[in-house]
Amino acid sequence: MGMDQSSQISATEPDWSREAIRGFWDPASKLMRAIRRYQAARARGGVIWRLISRYWALNHLFWSVITQCEIHLTTQIGGGLRLTHPTGIIIHPDARIGVNCMIFHQVTLAGPVELGGHVDVGAGAKLIGPLKVGDHAVIGANAVVTRDVPAGATVAGIPARVISGG
């Protein structure tokens, strides 16, 4: 992805259309909807909202089984997250995901990993925290990231190293 294209996607303002449900069978968007609505219901408090949050927790469980993703209901996720191929994604409850990020299949965010805004994480990448990834960074497919990644950098390899930008 060139810098022109990445600079068009904001690292601070969420693009909620990236999470829109586009059809009857859209597991990634439906999983994200369950997480968002669970968090909103829990934030409202009260008996009715607690019951509604339980519905969304069950909905989350269903879509988690379908996608084989482990994304905790209380994970801090900025708006506009795209789960392009939502299979086998594991995100630690202490991880924080910035706005407009994109995560491909078989990605693991282990421990307190913090993704900045508009970070793209390639298929099979493993980020082992604690670490921070700067805005507009790209993590290559199957990379094993164990150190902080500077903003605008592209990293790849095992262990991951900067191959461009940053």
Give the gist of this structure.
With 166 residues, the protein is of the alpha/beta class. It has 3 helices and 15 strands.
Could you describe the 3D structure shown?
With 166 residues, the protein is α/β, with parallel strands linked by helices. It has a single domain (17-164), classed as UDP N-Acetylglucosamine Acyltransferase, domain 1 (3 Solenoid), CATH 2.160.10. Helices cover 27% and strands 22% of the residues. The chain contains 3 helices and 15 strands. It has helices at 3-8, 27-44, 47-67; strands at 70-71, 76-77, 82-83, 90-91, 96-97, 102-103, 108-110, 113-115, 120-121, 126-128, 131-133, 138-139, 144-145, 154-156, 161-164. Strands 3-6-9-12-14-15 form a 6-stranded mixed beta sheet, with no helix packed on it. A 5-stranded parallel beta sheet has the order 1-4-7-10-13, with no helix packed on it. A hairpin with a 4-residue loop joins strand 14 (154-156) and strand 15. Helix 2 runs antiparallel to helix 3 (47-67). The radius of gyration is 16 Å and the shape is elongated. 37% of the residues are buried. Residues 1-6 have low confidence and may be disordered.
